[in-house]
Specification:
Low-confidence stretches: none
Protein name: Flavin prenyltransferase UbiX
Strand content: 5-15%
Structural class: alpha/beta
Keywords: Flavoprotein, FMN, Lyase, Prenyltransferase, Transferase
Mean pLDDT: 96
Shape: globular
Number of domains: 1
Strand order of the largest sheet: 3-2-1-4-5-6
Largest sheet: 6 strands, parallel
CATH topology: Rossmann fold
Catalytic activity: dimethylallyl phosphate + FMNH2 = prenylated FMNH2 + phosphate
Radius of gyration: 16 Å
InterPro entries: Flavin_trans-like, Flavoprotein, UbiX-like
Oligomer: single chain
CATH class: Alpha Beta
Binding site for dimethylallyl phosphate: 155, 171
Number of helices: 7
Number of strands: 6
Helix content: 25-40%
CATH superfamily: Flavin prenyltransferase-like
Length: 193
């Protein structure tokens, strides 16, 4: 593994597990070290939404921790990480993070990011949102998390679902200052002659 601090990727059971899987693939291609935690619900959703096996996803990361292992390296602020992206982030996980309820490694590691002032990006997946969801997002944001629901942009005229996934992942990577060329960046509207 590179001497560079790893990025922690967490995949929860919300719909959209492809965001987490593709994030790992992209980071691997970029030569960025990654550590992974998957919730039990994420493994179930992976089987429902994708053709990938859990072992295939785990193989994309440099290190993998069970979600129940609250004694893992990433559970401590003394373990250096570049930050954490939760992709996708279920409302259950959002609630745990917003309320500092560290009963799983994902919520504990997220709490570590907040207390150590490291980047924490939550790709929250739910719709429609009720006031409780919005209050949880506001609480997490007040603690320092970046709330980044994967909402597609269409200015670059995506041609596939993967184009839309890459646009969301690119936004998350931008929050951590990780250079990529996943989708064209907005250059301003075309000038009229």
């Amino acid at each position: 593994m590179s001497a560079q601090a790893p990025l922690l990727v967490a995949i929860t059971g919300a719909t959209g597990v492809i965001y987490g899987v593709e994030l790992l693939r992209v980071l691997c291609r970029l030569g960025q070290p990654t550590h992974l935690v998957m919730s039990e619900a994420a493994m179930m959703t992976l089987a429902i939404e994708t053709p990938y096996a859990v072992d295939e996803v785990r193989a994309l990361a440099d290190a993998v921790y069970p979600n129940k292992d609250i004694g893992a390296a990433v559970a401590s602020g003394s373990f250096r990480t570049r930050g954490m992206i939760v992709a996708p982030c279920s409302i259950k996980t959002l609630s745990a993070i917003a309320n500092s309820y560290s009963n799983t490694l994902i919520s504990r590691a997220a709490d570590v990011m907040l207390k150590e002032r490291r980047p924490l990006v939550l790709m929250v997946r739910e719709t429609p949102l009720h006031k409780g969801h919005l209050e949880l997002m506001a609480r997490a944001a007040d603690c320092g998390a970046v709330i980044l629901p994967p909402m597609p942009a269409f200015y670059d005229q995506p041609q596939s679902i993967m184009d839309i996934v890459h646009q969301g992942i690119g936004k998350a990577l931008d929050q951590l200052g990780i250079e990529h060329e996943l989708r064209p960046r907005w250059q301003g509207r075309p000038r009229q002659s």
